[in-house]
Design a protein that fits this description.
It is a single chain. This protein has three helices and four strands. With 106 residues, it is of the alpha/beta class. Helix 1 crosses helix 2 and helix 1 runs parallel beside helix 3.
Length: 106
C-alpha cells in the first residue's frame, strides 16, 4: 500500500544514516507492518511516521550504541515483540558478528 511505501522510504533514510556510521540496519517485516498500521489516522495521515520511527527504531538503537552493545560495523536487526514486562520496551541479544545485534522493541 501507499503507507507501507512511505514507511519503507523513511526507514531507508535511517538505514542510510547508519550505513554512514558503518552499520547495516535490518528492520523486520513484522515491525514495518506494525509501523504502517500504527501511524495512519484519518486526521493526520502518515505525518506522525517520522516521530514513531524515531521512538521505535532510532532511539533504542542509539541507546544500545551508547551503552556499548553495538560495536562498529555491527549489523543491527530491529524487530517487534509483544512482551508486557514493562521497562523501556527494549531487549538486546548479542549474536556473532555475522548475525548481528538484535534489538527488539515494543
Amino acid at each position: 500500500t501507499g503507507i507501507q511505501e512511505i514507511c519503507d522510504r523513511q526507514l531507508q533514510r535511517v538505514k542510510n544514516l547508519l550505513e554512514m556510521k558503518g552499520h547495516k540496519l535490518d528492520v523486520t517485516s513484522d515491525l514495518k507492518a506494525w509501523l504502517a498500521d500504527e501511524v495512519h489516522s484519518e486526521e493526520f495521515g502518515v505525518r506522525p511516521l517520522k516521530r514513531l520511527i524515531q521512538t521505535t527504531v532510532l532511539d533504542p538503537v542509539a541507546t544500545a550504541m551508547l551503552e556499548g552493545h553495538i560495536e562498529d560495523g555491527d549489523k543491527i536487526i530491529v524487530h517487534r515483540h509483544d512482551d508486557n514486562s514493562g521497562g523501556d520496551g527494549r531487549k538486546l541479544v548479542r549474536a556473532d558478528k555475522e548475525k548481528g545485534v538484535s534489538v527488539s522493541v515494543k
